[in-house]
Amino acid sequence: MDEATLPPAAASDEICPWCSATVKAGAVTCASCGAILIAEDAEVPGITEIDPKVARGERPPPQRSRLLSWISGDYPDTGGGPVDPGALAPPDPAVQREILLLELQAEVANLQAEADAMRADAIVEGRVADAEEIADAEEEAGIPAAEAEAGLHAGAAAGAAAAAPDKDAPPA
């Protein structure tokens, strides 16, 4: 159908180049998609005109997805600076000794915390015989009796406080 066969009202309408909706003749924006139909600078490179580089057949180098590069381990060469050969050398013996000392102290602290937790559980649950066995094991391990007694009494006080009925609480 050409414009001669269209009804007179439809002949004055235009078509939006962006969404193909019918718009009134002389409209500044499309009522359907909001695109600007009349612009002062009608030449926008890459939008309204062909980019000269593309017309000549030049193509930019394809950019690889950073996610795919990360997954495949194929990173672009950044040309890093000079590398210090000592950067990957093992630490000196004094530092290695300090690292081992810290590891051993952390392991001892973890085992002590586990023993304290076992002792507190035994006291709270009323397994006094188990608490005495733990104290005997501590003596064999070389833990001073004063530390063991302090932990035992602290655990007993916590267990007694938890087991004692609250005076303000209503009777069950």
Radius of gyration: 41 Å
Q: Tell me about the biggest sheet?
A: 2 strands, antiparallel
What distance lies between the first and last C-alpha atoms, to the nearest angstrom? 92 Å
Instruction: Kindly state the number of beta strands.
Output: 2
Describe this structure in words.
This protein has helices at 8-11, 52-55, 66-72, 93-124, 128-141, 145-163, and strands at residues 14-15, 22-23. By secondary structure, it is mainly α. Among the domains are: 7-39, no CATH class; 93-163. A two-stranded antiparallel sheet has the order 1-2. β1 and β2 form a beta hairpin. α4 (93-124) runs antiparallel to α5 (128-141), α4 (93-124) crosses α6 and α5 runs antiparallel to α6 (145-163). The longest helix is centred in the middle third of the chain and has 32 residues, at 93-124.
Task: Summarize the topology.
Blueprint: H1 8-11, E1 14-15, E2 22-23, H2 52-55, H3 66-72, H4 93-124, H5 128-141, H6 145-163
Antiparallel strand pairs: 1-2
Quick summary:
47% of the residues lie in helices and 2% in strands. With 172 residues, the chain is mainly alpha-helical.
Keywords:
mainly alpha, 172 residues, 6 helices, two-stranded antiparallel ribbon
